[in-house]
Design goal:
Keywords: Mitochondrion, Ribonucleoprotein, Ribosomal protein, Transit peptide. GO terms for molecular function: structural constituent of ribosome. Strands 5-6-15-14-11-16 form a six-stranded antiparallel β-barrel. A hairpin with a 5-residue loop joins strand 5 and strand 6. The chain is built from five helices and 17 strands. It is globular, with a radius of gyration of 28 Å. With 374 residues, it is an alpha+beta fold. It is 13% helix and 26% strand.
Amino acid sequence: MAAPRLLCTLGSRVPLLSLSSSRSSSLSCSFFSSLSLAGPCCPAAARRPLLSPATWLGAGCVVSTRCVSRSTSDTWWHEHLSEENNAFLRRHIKQEFTELTAARLNPLKDEPWSRHTWTPGSRRVGLVAVKLGIMPAWTKSGEKQPVTVLQVQDCHVLQHLSKEEYDGVTDVLLVGGKNVSPFSHSRVHLERCRLAGVPPKQKVSVFEVSKHALVKPGTPLYAAHFRPGQYVDVTAKTIGKGFQGVMKRWGYSGQPATHGQTKTHRRMGAIAAAGPARVWPGTKMPGRMGNIYRTEHGLKVWRVNTKYNVLYVHGSIPGHKNCLVKVRDTILHNRLKFNENPPFPTYFADGEEELPEELFDEELFNFDQPSITF
């Protein structure tokens, strides 16, 4: 019995991955190159309409009808991988990504980009982090402060776009965070990550940076990019609430509960005046609430864990738990004095500076220390 083959529908130029003895030779090519060379698989929903006989019009009559899939399978393709083949392919991809990242960090591969010193007005790159939740913290004076826990997971610089390629004003860096499976991403994203020498990322964010603050693509970014006492801006997508009325969405007080009111207790009332005889654009009315990007400005970094790449940021931020957020230096002018002389252009793990596992703000109480001293 012939051994089962993998990816038999990806085109003639893609090597057939099998579970036979020739597995080692079949896996010699990169998965990225396989995807870049392979032609797109044609699913049933993307094919042209088929001609089927129209029995209600009589014998010999045909009409053009679209082929509707009646399959209850949860996959898109007609030919599926077995569980054993799928597990084998994922193990191979994981091993290839590990080797790819290790080869990218080799200092002998190519020359690093020049590093400059920080100057007032410099704009650094930011991070892509995962929101883990919220917890309390206490200052040395006994005040309770809510902090949001953000973890930086597999954050790398993916690409540099010059101002001519972007908008003609400033340079930008594309940063990706949290490794994901390559089976659910486009060929453009896979090629961008391959050129950077990193695995595919779940979220890619754009950061405007100064010319002397550029970071080489493929460089890993850590939580030590920020230090306690600095202020950051956090951008994330808010939790979707669905279609809501004006009382929940905009905080309207509604209509009276009694005195002739019927089925209008939670309604908005008049939406415009009779003079203009129109409803102005932007009028607050019922609609979908949440699921939009919001930015919280001027959040203080209370604590940094350099071992697990965790940031403790003041207050609450948009988004649900385990969502990906964008963290960058604040743009508030009254907070810029606290962000002077940061790690520039970022923190490099191979540098001469050795950091402790925990970094605390000078006002934050460390529970490893005694609370009462004599």
